[in-house]
Amino acid sequence: MSEFFTLSVLIATFASAVRLAVPYLLAALGETIGQRSGVLNLGVDGVMLLSAFGAYYTVIETGSHLLGVGVGLLIGLFMGVVYAVVTVHLHAKQGISGIGIFLFGLGFSDLLSQELVGAIQPIKKLPSLAKLPFVGGIFEPLEDIKYIGELLFSHNLMTYVAFALVPIVTWMMNRTTFGLNIKAVGENPQAADSLGVSVERTRFFAILIGNTLAGLAGATLSLQLGVFQQNLTNGLGFIAVALVYFGAWRAKWVMAGAMLYGLVTATRLQWQARDIIPNSASDLAAMTPALITILALVLLAKRVRGPAALTKPFTRH
Amino acid sequence: MSELMPLLEMRNITKRFPGVLANDNVSFDVLPGEVHTLLGENGAGKSTLMKILFGLYLPDEGEILLRGAPTQISSPISAIEQRVGMVHQHFMLVPTLTVAENVALGLSSNRGIRTDLDTVSKRIMDISEHYGLAVDPGVEIWKMSVGERQRVEIIKALYRDAELLVLDEPTAVLTPQEVDDLFVILRKMTSQGTGIVFISHKLHEVLELSDRITVLRNGRVSGATTPAETNRQQLAEMMVGREVKLAPDKPALDRGKVRLQLNNVHVLGDRDTMAVNGVDLAVHAGEIVGIAGISGNGQRELAETIAGLRPAEAGSSVSIDGVDISRANPAQTRRAGLSYVAEERMKDGAVGEFDISENLLLINHGEKRFIRGGLFNFDAIKQHCQRLVENFNVKTPSLSTPISSLSGGNIQKVIMARELDSDPKVVLAAQPTRGVDIGAAEYIHSQLIEQRTRGCAILMISEDLDEILGLADRIAVMFEGQVVTIIDRPEATKEQLGLAMTGAL
């Protein structure tokens, strides 16, 4: 146990926690935006699976991470259009529609993977900043700084994108007209409608952004791991939905939740690697992040009310 | 001087819905600087006419002229753009946002995609100063009183340069003082040329504020008059189409023994604060005690506690004819002799999808007289329900009609029929005539008075001071969870009650 509490191991644990948190953070930020507009999306996990496969397959075919991430983003965008049309324009129940999207993503990504790839074949993982073409040289000395380099400068580009999105989403929600509209249609769509704010259009774009971020989350996941397999996410998208509640629909608290989850997971991996947790208990250990999240949800959950119109389809009169 | 050009003219408006003629050849106009009241019962066509004006419905026939020019109003936006503003009965505000954010909603910003709340706040301050509409632009709506929220709604319309303002039952939720303040603001607006459509069924307010009054009944204009030419009685008869008794006849009675006794009642509210904070009250046989107060001062929690729906804190005592019910569940309170007419009739009083007979049997379907061989005896049930529907004058196509398709007044009559049929010792009636037609309200009041004559003790909670003054023998005013004063009806005045309701007495 004592070997775990050395600075270098702790730094390594924390650095991997940051990376592990990225898919959760991206997906949960997207879901936050959707939910603030009054739309619950339980299909996040399915969208992530589709994008994860799309990104993975693109890298196999082209070798380009950039294209891979781009394809993942576009798949998210497309699924966003589908989900928005179904729930906003056709007024379908959100809960069951989301589960439909999840099941579709779960099955279809597996089917594609078997048909197009077959046996699991590893790809090169997302490189750290220092390994990026052209600009890598700038970051090389930074990454070499003891401890700090590993902690702050050893990550892949998507990690920085994800964390940069936290202040951007906060700014969008609190300082822009679009953010104001999102909050209004999520709380009292009748009021927004009476003032000429299009509830349908606002929710449509909020869902689009949300699913696009879920797509990015999926792409990041498979490219960070360098593989795709059936049910790669293993419920990650559902945890992301839970993190939105945990974070009381505020980007910075959602980030705190994602980091907590990443930290617990990273610690478990370290302890397993060091046999602090015996191999025989590995399944139990794998449960700990979920258990701790549930505990945190119960204990920390602030008495914050969610958007009043969450899950309620809007029709006039 | 030539006649003023009307701000608004609605000419020969007809609007049909499947099976209903909601507006039948209705004409209505508003001059600049006047208050024109639209009076009518629920379903008379006021809302339809105003929804047409606000672009929510298109008329089937007829035309609308604004400032003399024919126009189409196809959506709320087009109404706002043509400087028509509307203060809805149910406020169109986002409670989690600030005043400025609510006002800015839907407007384009000078700062591109960023909101420009500084500019909006500044103009809100200007408007609020100009018309005496005191609000703080930086405060979230949920922290505000109902009166303040209404001022925000008016500011929203003025911010959009409304020249014609429709106010749909604006006084329904206000205290008498707040009503006075509102009228001052409205007069200030009319003095500057704004035209106001005032919708209300509080007749004395209509007479006080209006320049002209148009009465609708069954979708048609049944009368047009001015306050100088008419009185409350006439207006009520124009609305209902027959003679009505505004002040119910109440026989003089000597009150009997105490039936409902509340001692030191403390109740926690939904937010874990003390919503009812030490109430002592006795209601005697043959007496109606009215509880007046602005909603949110503990009346709802008190009612739920008496009905057994909300636990009272230790040390509280509630009893009916000496039987303690402070820890009782709803079934036990009913056995002790309580009947409960709940405030939210579609939430706590009736089951919307159930039909009328099912709703009439909600509290006593287990009784032997409705059961034969372990199954329902539908003949007995039908007979029982038929009798209640006839006795209580419920207008319904059949006993198997879902209750939710009835009007508010008829739903309330079904609930009253169910509650009063058991010869209760105590009747607890919360907002018994809220949203109910004059005709139905008159009937409901007469039923309560009949129970009083029978020797029942009646506790009536109402926000409608006219109702309280018309029915109650004694009036208890609740403020911040306490009964601040109890006044005998003959000594009570509206002003005094209004002051007590705001804690000023």
Q: Name the CATH superfamily assignment of the largest domain in chain B.
A: P-loop containing nucleotide triphosphate hydrolases
**In CATH's first tier, which class of chain A applies?**
Mainly Alpha
**Alpha plus pi helix count of chain B:** 17
Helix- and strand-based class of chain A?
mainly alpha
Strand content of chain A: under 5%
For the biggest β-sheet of chain B, the strand order reads: 6-7-8-3-9-10
User: CA-to-CA gap between the ends of chain B?
Assistant: 50 Å
Number of strands of chain A: 0
Any idea how many domains of chain A? Answer: 1
- The name of the CATH architecture of chain A is Orthogonal Bundle
Proportion of residues in helical segments of chain B = 25-40%
Greatest chain-chain contact: A-B, 22 and 26 residues
Low-confidence runs of at least 5 consecutive residues of chain B: none
Oligomer: heterodimer
Total count of domains of chain B: 3
- Rg of chain B, rounded, reads 25 Å
CATH architecture of the largest domain in chain B: 3-Layer(aba) Sandwich
Strand percentage of chain B, roughly?
25-35%
Biggest beta-sheet profile of chain B = 6 strands, mixed
Number of strands of chain B: 22
Unreliable spans of chain A: none
